[in-house]
Specification:
single chain; 114 residues; alpha+beta; Adenine-n6-DNA-methyltransferase TaqI, Chain A, domain 2; four-stranded antiparallel β-sheet; 3 helices; 16% helix; elongated
């Protein structure tokens, strides 16, 4: 008998959609701040081009370096970790529901090539 327990992903992780930048939210974009906007292009190229006002952005959209970021449009299913900033609407921020979850395992699992 195995000591491993199986869970559905939604039982152990919270999923938050990123911030939509449109005519109603573009006022959040600023010339410089400590919060870059993490678009797919920026994640892939490891660049920072756009910043978001730290005082105004919803906390659920802010990724910490320990969070997973999944792309949901364009090249769907890319997974990133180690990025701090505001997740763009074309991505999801994935956060564990408790401290027992080892996110690096999921990062490597979702990035495997088999």
């Amino acid at each position: 008998m195995s000591s491993w327990r199986e869970y559905k992903l939604g039982e152990v992780m919270n999923l938050f959609q990123g911030l939509a930048i449109n005519s109603k939210t573009k006022y959040l974009l600023v010339e410089k701040s400590n919060l870059p906007l993490l678009r797919i292009k920026d994640l892939q190229e490891n660049t920072i081009e756009i910043f978001v006002d730290e005082k105004e952005v919803p906390e659920k959209c802010v990724a910490n370096e320990n969070d997973l970021i999944f792309t949901r449009t364009g090249i769907v299913g890319l997974v990133f970790m180690g990025k701090k900033g505001v997740v763009h609407n074309n991505c999801f921020r994935i956060v564990p529901k408790n401290d027992d979850i080892f996110l690096k395992f999921y990062y490597y699992y979702f990035n495997r090539k088999d």
